[in-house]
Every structure is written in C-alpha cells, then in structure tokens.
C-alpha cells in the first residue's frame, strides 16, 4: 500500500532555502512512498469566528481535507526569533480543530530545521516538537536533523552540493520511513 508523506515548509518566500532543502529531500524517499507539498501560506490566521458549524473558512476545510489523506508529516522549517514560523503554528492550530476532530492525532512526523547560522534552527525544531506532544503526533526522536550553514549547501541550480549533507539527509529519510512503518 502506498504511504503518503505531507511536506510542510515553514518559509513562504519564493527563494526560500528551506523550500530548496525540502525539494532536495523529497526525491530521497523510496518507491512506495509518495510525497506531497502541502501549502500553508493561504490559510487565514486561526479564528474561531471563521470556524463555526454553519460556516467554515474554505481554506481551513481545504487544508484539513488534504491532511486527512496523509499518513505522515515532514516539517522542514527555518527558525524565526528562536521559535517556529507563524505559518507552521497557524497550520497546527487550524488542523487541531474542530475539537475532537484533529487531523494530527496519532500521525508520525519528522522535523528538519535549517539556518544560515550554526545553531541550525534548534529553537524552531524543538518549538514544533513541543506542539506535537500535545497534538498526539509522534515525532521521530533520532536522528535529529539540524542543518546549519545552509546558504553554503546548494549549487546555482538549487541542488545540494555537499556529499556529507546529502548522505546524512538520506539517513534521516530512511529512519523516517522505518518510523512511519511502526504506525501502519
Ligand atoms: C530570521 N532568521 C533567523 N535565523 C536563525 O537562525 N534564528 C532566528 O531566530 C532567526 N530569526 C529570524 C526571524 C525572521 C522574521 C526572519 C525573516 C529570519 C534568519 C533565517 O534563518 C534566514 O532568513 C533563512 O534564510 C530563512 O529561511 P528561508 O526563508 O530561506 O527558507
């Protein structure tokens, strides 16, 4: 049976390094695992007034329906002010409602953070982990993926140019596929 991994990218800008990283990682998944980039940039900030029984914002419904179809989630994120970017927090909130119908519940996940700095998005990575605990998502523990010095890792065509990073990321993907297998 096909496994579907939803990839959520924390940066919304078109020249995002996080997006580049995610685009390089997606083809590392083996046959039998499909990846889908799930867009979060058009989801309005969570507001219960836009989420009533009579009237739910169409972007909330669209996101929830997409996420219901995925078996696992890969978060690829930059760090904003030592925390996760607001877009990811908003996606977590929107997906968690209506109460009792969370689309996150019980799903496995993995988190990759990147930064041009050496701290490699550690704060964002763990900020997401904190939210996932409450949402009953199972983030892979090891290997952790903190990608530092990210501006130096890509060639002019946006391809990873560092063999050590490529091989490390492949190790992370392989472990994630094994992790997902525990929940099937
Ligand atoms: C940043 N940046 C950043 N970097 C970091 O390592 N720790 C941080 O706390 C922050 N804070 C921060 C806040 C805001 C609002 C912005 C826009 C940026 C720098 C960030 O790592 C850098 O811009 C990355 O290139 C962002 O990822 P994308 O957009 O290239 O994917």
Automatic annotation (TrEMBL):
Query: What's one GO-annotated cellular component?
Result: cytosol
Which branch of life, at top level? Bacteria
> Which segments constitute the NADPH-dependent FMN reductase-like domain?
3-149
Question: Origin organism of this chain?
Answer: Aliicoccus persicus
- This chain's protein is named FMN-dependent NADPH-azoreductase
Q: Which GO terms describe its molecular function?
A: FMN binding; oxidoreductase activity
Entry keywords, A to Z: Flavoprotein, FMN
Assembly notes: Homotetramer.
Protein family membership: Belongs to the azoreductase type 2 family.
Pfam family for this entry, one: FMN_red
User: What InterPro entries does its record include?
Assistant: Flavoprotein-like_sf, FMN_Rdtase-like_dom, NAD(P)H-dep_reductase
């Amino acid at each position: 049976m096909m496994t579907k991994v939803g990839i959520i990218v924390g940066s919304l800008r078109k020249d995002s390094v996080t997006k580049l990283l995610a685009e390089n990682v997606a083809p590392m998944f083996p046959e039998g695992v499909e990846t889908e980039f799930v867009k979060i940039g058009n989801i309005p900030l969570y507001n219960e007034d836009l989420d009533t029984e009579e009237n739910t914002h169409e972007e909330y419904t669209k996101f929830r329906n997409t996420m219901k179809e995925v078996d696992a989630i890969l978060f690829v994120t930059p760090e904003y002010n030592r925390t996760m970017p607001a877009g990811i927090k908003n996606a977590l909130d929107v997906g968690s409602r209506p109460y009792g119908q969370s689309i996150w519940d019980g799903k496995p996940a993995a988190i990759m953070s990147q930064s041009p700095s050496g701290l490699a998005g550690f704060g964002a990575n763990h900020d997401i982990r904190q939210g996932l605990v409450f949402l009953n998502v199972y983030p892979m523990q090891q290997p952790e993926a903190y990608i530092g010095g990210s501006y130096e890792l890509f060639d002019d065509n946006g391809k990873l140019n560092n063999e050590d990073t490529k091989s490390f990321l492949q190790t992370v993907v392989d472990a994630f596929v094994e992790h997902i297998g525990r929940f099937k």
